[in-house]
Design brief:
Length: about 290
């Protein structure tokens, strides 16, 4: 079923692209992709959508499943990002036109990568403050990306092309967000399985750390139940620890991948053509 629908989707997409390029009045003017600024901006916005929605989905998932945060507290942890973006947008609005778009974008993508790498330093004893500061940096980065990126992307287009460009621009942001959410859930699930398969090789009777942990758990649990039940409970307790550590490393790997993805976007910023300001004409007064 999935293969059939993938095939139908690919054929339909190819037919759509061919049709839009051949008809005189296309529904979506794909010819605007010939503009280098727009094509580069569209790629960058897709990546931003992946990172933005991916971290929005991944961080609460980590806080609620591994840290035991309730949904409300998890939301409080994410809220500083919105406030940071709100405040920073006013600053960016004043910098646009005074500072080169490329420098603003480089700073924004660098901060976005830094926030992802800071989040990759999480562990099961991490405090809320250690999560809030990277999310604040994430909000600052988003402000330094969205405004200059939109300006640079649309700068080479005519007024007639703006409608189609805006539609494609928002579409790719949403598609990137969908990819990001699917990317996170897939990487966390498969990464946890991979790390569990690697770490379970150390849980053997010949491993001193494992035997010490098992005997300590058995001794503690024997006070409340019989030795056989205590042994089963000790194994279950250690497996639960293994499962938590495997998922933790899966989250760490995903945040690192996000950080590397953002760094790979930095060279694309150099492909933007410089925005030329229109000359100011003197107005003749009669």
């Amino acid at each position: 079923w999935i293969r059939w629908f993938i095939g139908i989707s690919v054929v339909a997409m190819i037919a759509f692209i061919v049709w839009e390029f051949t008809v005189e009045h296309p529904l979506v003017d794909l010819r605007i992709l010939r503009s280098r600024n727009f094509a580069v901006g569209l790629m960058l916005m897709t990546v931003v959508g992946v990172i933005l929605y991916g971290t929005t989905a991944e961080l609460p998932l980590f806080l609620q499943t591994l840290m035991g945060y309730p949904a409300l507290q998890s939301g409080y942890t994410m809220s500083p990002r919105g406030m940071a973006a709100f405040v920073t947008t006013f600053i960016v609005g004043r910098l646009v036109g005074r500072v080169s778009q490329r420098w603003l974008l480089c700073f924004g993508f660098s901060m976005l990568s830094l926030s992802a790498f800071l989040l990759s330093d999480i562990n099961l004893q991490v405090s809320m403050a250690s999560v809030i500061w990277p999310t604040v940096l994430n909000g600052v980065a988003i402000s330094f990306i969205f405004v200059p990126l939109t300006t640079a992307t649309m700068s080479q287009l005519s007024q007639r092309q703006i409608g189609s460009a805006t539609g494609l621009y928002n579409l790719m942001l949403n598609i990137g967000g969908s990819i990001g959410i699917a990317f996170v859930t897939t990487l966390v699930a498969r990464g946890a399985q991979a790390h569990q398969a690697l770490m379970v090789g150390h849980l053997t009777p010949t491993d001193p750390a494992f035997t010490r942990q098992l005997h300590a758990a058995q001794a503690m649990l024997t006070r409340h139940s019989d030795p056989v039940t205590a042994t089963h409970q000790a194994y279950a307790l250690i497996y639960n620890m293994l499962n938590q550590q495997a998922h933790l490393w899966a989250f760490v790997d995903t945040f690192r991948i996000f950080g590397l993805m953002v760094l790979c976007c930095l060279p694309l910023i150099l492909l933007f053509k410089r925005i030329k300001r229109a000359p100011v004409r003197a107005v003749e007064v009669h």
